Amino acid sequence: MIQNFYDKVAKKFGIYHTGAKYSKEYLAGDPEEIFKKNLLELSGKAKIALDVGCADGRFTLSIAPYFKKVFAIDMSKGMLGAARKLQKEKGVLNVSFEEQNANKTTYTNDMFDLVYSRRGPTPFSEFHRLLKSGSYFIEITIGEKDCQEIKEIFGRGQGFGEWNSSRLDEDRQKLKDNKFEITFAQNYLYDEYYSSYEDLDLFLQGVPIFEDFDSKKDSELLREYISQYQEKKGIRFPRHRVVIVAKRI
Ligand SMILES: C[S@@+](CC[C@H](N)C(=O)[O-])C[C@H]1O[C@@H](n2cnc3c(N)ncnc32)[C@H](O)[C@@H]1O
């Protein structure tokens, strides 16, 4: 179960970040920056936001000063523990980290001015219920071609084999079906370059690309990947992200 995965990561690393060293090279802009820019354009000191699948809360705490209040939900007790610890360290008062299932929250209708999901779950009908009419949902999510090359070598992984089912088109359609109007939708393909075998191995331990990744058992497959994708700049690791902004009708 995915929740066990996130609890395991929180226990092992303390936060949702392994410290693996890598650089990034973008062809059409940094999707994280574009997501954040869109989010901040829709922020406001009188607004209440919902962060869906907040994990260790680092991102939540970084954008909290732009809102009146942010409710941040997750189902992993380990991640919520890490988030509350970080909140205490940073002294941020206007965030409430809560254990809630995004599919069926306990919040009232029309409670939020903005709902966002940064690689978290996306139950759009629940988001429609929670958002005020005319307010926005923003997501950055994982595209179908993310890490396709390493998944093909491993013969498994998140979304394995679904290389041609467009996540952007699927989410666009689901949002329309749930009475949202799309105002922005874009695919981003880019490359990460890992410094060493150890860095890529460490990175794979902290992300659900292979939920069952095992440094020992998978070492031969990882060496095979590196032998094919080692370049001067480092070990190339192609990524795919999707950014969508939608208005609740
Ligand atoms: C990739 S992480 C999100 C990272 C985080 N948003 C960030 O900015 O670093 C996905 C998170 O979604 C949470 N999650 C998955 N399904 C959920 C659900 N149904 N309700 C609430 N949280 C969920 C997981 O526990 C995990 O912490």
TrEMBL record:
CDD domains per UniProt: AdoMet_MTases
Superkingdom, taxonomy of origin: Bacteria
GO terms, biological process: methylation
InterPro entries according to UniProt: Diverse_substrate_MTase, Methyltranfer_dom, SAM-dependent_MTases_sf
Classification of source organism: Bacteria, Candidatus Roizmaniibacteriota
An MF annotation (GO) of this entry: methyltransferase activity
UniProt keyword terms in alphabetical order: Methyltransferase, Transferase
Methyltransferase domain mapped to chain residues: 45-143
Organism: Candidatus Roizmanbacteria bacterium RIFCSPHIGHO2_01_FULL_39_12c
Protein name listed in UniProt: Methyltransferase domain-containing protein
Family annotation (Pfam families): Methyltransf_31
Residue ranges that the Swiss-Prot or TrEMBL entry lists as coiled coil: none
Claim: Cell inner membrane is one of the keywords in the record: no
